[in-house]
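Filed under: proteins

Residues; backbone shape codes:
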Amino acid sequence: MVDSNACIAWRLFNLNWIPIAAMGGVLLLAVAWGFTIEPVAFAIPAAIAVALAMTAYLYAFAKADRADPKLIFPLGTIAQLLLVATIMGPLTYVVGAANWPLQDRALLAIDRALGMDPELIARYVNDRDWLATLLLRGYGLIKWPLLGIPIVLTLTSRLVRLQLFVFAFSLALIVTVAISAFMPAIGTYYGLNIAPSQFPSLDASLYAAQLRDILALREGSLRHLELFKLTGIVSFPSFHAASAVLYMWALWPVRGIGGLAVALNLLMIAATPVIGAHYMIDVFGGVALAAISILVGKYFLDSLAPSSMAHAAQPPPALLPALE
């Protein structure tokens, strides 16, 4: 593992710990501020992530220049993504407690100005049971790519792309959470002032959960966070939409998988306004944020690549000295 692509990927992999550490630091401040986190539920995924990361590093140290990147990068990258998800879930609740004015009216007004009324969209889907079922399945696709992408991109030797994906994913999530602190919203049903029961074919359980938690956060009664009970409470920008774009970009070059990834993630984007009760401007914002995060990642790579190539040109005695 001493070729130039592996060198660049390894440097990116190590640098990707920086935003993760920053996320963890902010979460610690939140705990000091008055939030509490149920320790067992948080410790389980965190311990799994640490174990995977340690395995990757120990293997890299032990094998040195004979280390196989197809073992190091899936383990290490899955560890990073798992930590990102574990930390940022509670952080969405922390920023939700900032109690800035709700922006549902503004977001609804933008949607209507664009000619896309959420009520008309919901009624259209509600009248077609097959479509409501399909979108419900599509909305749940956000989790599995976090496991599949590291494996697929490593097996196809797209190591740099994998690390750029982790960088862009982390950046997009950080910016999403930061924006949501100043642009809080509950969702389309709340903005329209209608009951979800008017759309019996649509699963409104996610909306009901976010309505419950957002109101509890804003009134101060919710300060104890249980990881496995958290729901998505971020409206603008939509991280479902951002994730879908990032997943499509990551897998697009992989023959036989790229086209399927596009189809499935377009389905997830289509499901976001209906199942997630997002405004259309949320979706547009998420798509734009993902595109910007990818561009920032590529710019960062361009600034990093020359020094990494210089390291690669020197014959290293071992993996880590060569890649650090």
About this structure: The two ends are 13 Å apart (CA to CA). The longest strand covers residues 36-37. Confidence is low (pLDDT under 50) at residues 309-324.
